From TrEMBL:
PANTHER family: UPF0111 PROTEIN YKAA (PTHR37298:SF1). It comes from Oryzomonas rubra. Belongs to the UPF0111 family. This is DUF47 domain-containing protein. The lineage of its organism: Bacteria, Pseudomonadati, Thermodesulfobacteriota, Desulfuromonadia, Geobacterales. It holds the Pfam family PhoU_div.
């Protein structure tokens, strides 16, 4: 896979650092949703992790500009780094909205979405770890798993919003939680975007 021409392998290490950092953000979000003891502190922790993600993305772009022979297409390296950065941006955006909207309790659907986000990030990490290896079959399997998790998040989000419209009497609370649910679900969309890019990379370089 990826031919015999010597290429800059540092990209694989940086992508792995990005996915590990994303898992750290997802764990912090899940802890924030599950425990909700000090949400402001949790949000600050997630923001710090997101800043670290920005630094890693910047490092990849800088290296891309300086590297002559890349392990796969430049546009795919850029797209994958952007997609991984977007996952963490949505994790951070979810935490920010919970603080901004002064959430007092966390519905069970939000906790479920937090768990799905974490699972999705872990599978993305697993797929990225296999980039550049001889066999690409497991990357395809991981991408299928990410797609299934995104479908599950979509279902949970739809049911949560439907329940809101059925049960929530305060229109302001309805608007707030609808946006939070949608933002949480978008994080899994970004995981699926990363999976689609990984599939494309494997197909191009098979």
């Amino acid at each position: 896979m990826f031919g015999l021409i010597p290429k800059e392998e540092k990209f694989f290490q940086l992508f792995k650092q990005m996915t590990e950092n994303t898992i750290e953000g997802a764990l912090a979000l899940k802890d924030m949703l599950d425990n909700f003891e000090n949400p402001a502190a949790s949000q600050r922790k997630i923001k710090d992790i997101e800043h670290n993600g920005d630094s890693l993305t910047h490092e990849i772009i800088q290296k891309l500009n300086k590297t002559f022979v890349t392990p796969f297409d430049r546009e795919d390296i850029y797209a994958l780094s952007s997609a991984l950065d977007d996952i963490l941006d949505l994790i951070d955006a979810s935490a920010q909205r919970i603080i901004m909207y002064n959430a007092e309790t966390i519905p069970h659907e939000a906790k479920s979405l937090g768990f799905i986000i974490l699972q999705s990030c872990q599978v993305v990490d697993k797929a990225v770890a296999m980039l550049g290896k001889q066999s690409n079959e497991h990357i395809f399997e991981a991408c299928v798993e990410i797609n299934a998790l995104e479908n599950e998040a979509d279902r949970v989000s739809r049911e949560a919003i439907s329940r809101l419209f059925d049960e929530e009497k305060d229109p302001i609370q309805l608007i707030k939680w609808k946006e939070i649910f949608e933002t949480l679900e978008k994080a899994t969309d970004k995981c699926e975007d990363a999976a689609n890019i990984l599939e494309s990379v494997v197909v191009k370089n098979a």
